[in-house]
Amino acid sequence: TTSTILLLVRVHYYYAGGDSALSLTIRRTVGESNTDVYSDSTAYAYYGESGATNRRGEVSLNYKDSPSTTSAITYQIRARKNSGTVYLNENSIGSVTAFEIGA
Fewest CB within a 10 Å sphere: which of 19, 51, 77, 85? Predict the structure, then answer.
């Protein structure tokens, strides 16, 4: 319960439509409980390009989580746009690597 989890995330994205804003969230699931442990609402400034449409790109981020559990953990990467559609990891080219760091 005292270990931390280091997540190394690499996400490829494609978004359609005129809205260029994109935000990422990391969701942790333990049993039936979901918790958004990382949510980057400021990502709009980083991942978007003013006036861009139909863009592809890559985002990498590192996150250190302290789940305080001995149960199995599932992490999910989620994306959000104000309007239009965003697709993650076309052709399975993204990755999430998790390292457990002992106490």
Answer: 51
pLDDT digits (tens, 9 = 90+) for 7-44: 999 988 887 766 666 788 999 999 999 999 998 765 44
pTM check: above 0.90:
no
Residue that has been written with the tokens 């989620």 in this structure: 78
Tokens of 73: 């953990």
Q: Tell me if residue 79 falls in helix, strand or coil.
A: strand
- Token pair for 12: 């490829």
Q: Is the dihedral of CA 1, 95, 91, 86 positive or negative?
A: positive
As a whole number of angstroms, the distance between CA 84 and CA 82 comes to: 7
Tokens of 23: 């935000």
